[in-house]
């Protein structure tokens, strides 16, 4: 048995495109024996309060968080924010803008799918998304599966929804500086999410890219991630240690949306140690942010 306390700092709930509610996520994490989790929904913090409340009731540490997509050199890059102040007004209003950008884009995806001959309405997509705040492409994928147009979500993305595919529509994004400032203004720690997932990035480009983001205020790197091989993980860890960046990690759990990924362990062997959370909290004790840490 392992004696190290484990965590998962990258989790999507039904507030965005995950399939479990915040309460269900907390229960599942507790059952799996995790010591802390971070809720990182796309463009919304709406899942955090329910998760924190449930965490207090059943005894699981919940780190408030968010994941936003910024536009960097023409490509989407994801930024995670941890320990954000959930009452911060500029955070709340800018996240609402990001939801509005989704609401501009989403009907255009429907139009494209319709013009390709697929019978799908935005109502169908909203039904799948339930009372979630951020409606995204995985919800479209699920409708396409249910209507029998594709076998599974992968095929939906490959044929229609992924960047460059026939029904793909860009959405407006913040610049990296805007995204990073937004989180910092809300007393959050900014982390570059899954750096090796950036479109077209090669191992040898990585340091240059991270350096640019560090110049724009990034404070941490997501080092532990299911898709990264040991060499990539080591490369990120070494870089973070060399440059004084926080190290984080998580599975990007989406529930049934990504059926191969398990909460806490990814494809089965991911292990993210609790000490990473302890380090982030130290900083916040020093800086005394407005929130209860
Ligand atoms: P959106 O927020 O609407 O732009 O959708 C982004 C989400 O779609 C990501 O967070 C993933 O959950 C999912 N996604 C993106 N690309 C793919 C892909 N190629 N295959 C499966 N899911 C994907
Ligand atoms: Zn997602
Ligand atoms: Fe992401
Ligand atoms: Fe994510």
Give a short synopsis of this structure:
This protein is α/β, with parallel strands linked by helices and 293 residues long. 41% of the residues lie in helices and 14% in strands. The protein has ten helices and eight strands.
Q: What topology does this entry show?
A:
Elements: E1 7-11, H1 22-31, E2 36-39, H2 48-58, E3 61-63, E4 65-72, E5 75-82, H3 89-115, H4 122-129, H5 137-146, H6 153-161, H7 176-185, E6 189-192, H8 206-215, E7 220-224, H9 230-242, E8 246-249, H10 275-287
Parallel strand pairs: 1-2, 2-3, 6-7, 7-8
Antiparallel strand pairs: 4-5, 5-6
Helix pairs in contact: 1-2, 4-5, 5-6
The structure holds adenosine monophosphate, zinc ion and fe (iii) ion (FE) (2 copies).
Adenosine monophosphate is lined by residues 17, 42, 136-138, 153-154, 157, 162, 254.
């Amino acid at each position: 048995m392992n004696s190290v306390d484990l965590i998962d700092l990258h989790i999507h709930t039904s507030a965005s495109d995950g399939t479990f509610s915040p309460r269900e996520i907390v229960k599942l994490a507790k059952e799996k024996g995790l010591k802390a989790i971070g809720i990182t929904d796309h463009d919304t913090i709406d899942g955090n309060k329910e998760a924190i409340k449930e965490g207090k009731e059943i005894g699981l540490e919940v780190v408030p968080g968010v994941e936003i997509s910024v536009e960097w050199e023409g490509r989407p890059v994801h930024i995670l924010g941890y320990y954000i102040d959930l009452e911060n007004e500029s955070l709340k209003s800018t996240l609402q803008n990001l939801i509005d950008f989704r609401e501009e884009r989403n009907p255009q995806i429907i139009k494209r799918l319709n013009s390709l001959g697929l019978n799908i309405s935005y109502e169908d997509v909203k039904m799948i998304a339930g009372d979630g705040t951020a409606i995204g492409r995985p919800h479209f994928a699920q409708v396409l599966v249910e209507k029998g147009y594709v076998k599974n979500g992968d095929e939906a993305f490959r044929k229609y929804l992924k960047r460059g595919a026939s029904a793909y529509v860009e959405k407006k994004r913040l610049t990296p500086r805007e995204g990073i400032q937004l989180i910092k203004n809300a007393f959050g720690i900014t982390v570059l999410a899954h750096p090796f997932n950036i479109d077209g990035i090669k191992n040898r480009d990585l340091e240059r890219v991270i350096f640019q983001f560090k110049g724009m205020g990034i404070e941490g790197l997501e080092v532990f991630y299911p898709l990264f091989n040991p060499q990539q993980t080591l490369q990120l860890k070494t870089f973070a240690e060399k440059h004084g960046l926080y190290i984080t990690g998580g599975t990007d759990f989406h529930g049934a949306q990504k059926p191969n990924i398990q909460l806490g362990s990814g494809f089965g062997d991911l292990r993210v140690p609790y000490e990473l959370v302890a380090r982030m909290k130290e900083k916040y004790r020093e800086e005394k942010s407005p929130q209860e840490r």
